[in-house]
Amino acid sequence: MTKKNLATTLTPEVTQALVQLGKRLRACRIDRQLTIAQMSEKMLCSINTYRDLEAGKPSASLGNFATALWLLSQLESLHAVAPVPASLADGRRAKRGTGIGTAIAHQELDF
């Protein structure tokens, strides 16, 4: 899927959430008196890439968002996204069936 197509497949709620995330990122940057050029330099990315983050563009990399949060001392806020206790998430895999009616349809597969 191209970046252009990605934007057209998102729901309005997802689009709005990304825009709000970008606004919060911008507010943190301004609060720390950093320019867009300074942030992009610290992140080793282009100014346009950083602008995409603050604009909430869906094609912006999650890695870039995480790096920006780290630089702004906000990386801990990423732990609040889809909170699941680590003990539940670590070492678990989704259960997959091989077909209807087979004996291992509900057996956990771990490759």
Strand and helix layout:
Layout: H1 3-9, H2 12-31, H3 36-43, H4 47-55, H5 62-71, H6 86-89
The secondary structure category is: mainly alpha
CATH superfamily of the domain at 9-73: lambda repressor-like DNA-binding domains
CATH architectural designation of the domain at 9-73: Orthogonal Bundle
Main sheet record: none
Helix content: 40-55%
Question: Which outline best applies?
Answer: globular
β-sheet strand percentage: under 5%
Low-confidence stretches: 102-106
State the end-to-end distance: 28 Å
Number of helices: 6
- How confident is the prediction overall: mean pLDDT? 82
Query: Quick one: CATH class of the domain at 9-73?
Result: Mainly Alpha
As a whole number of angstroms, the C-alpha radius of gyration is 19 Å
Total number of β-strand segments? 0
Detailed description of the structure:
Helix 3 (36-43) crosses helix 4 (47-55). This protein has 6 helices and no strands. The chain has a domain at 9-73: Orthogonal Bundle (434 Repressor (Amino-terminal Domain)), CATH 1.10.260. With 111 residues, the chain is an all-alpha fold. It starts with a helix and ends in a 22-residue tail after the last helix. The chain is globular and about 45 Å long. Helices cover 52% and strands 0% of the residues.
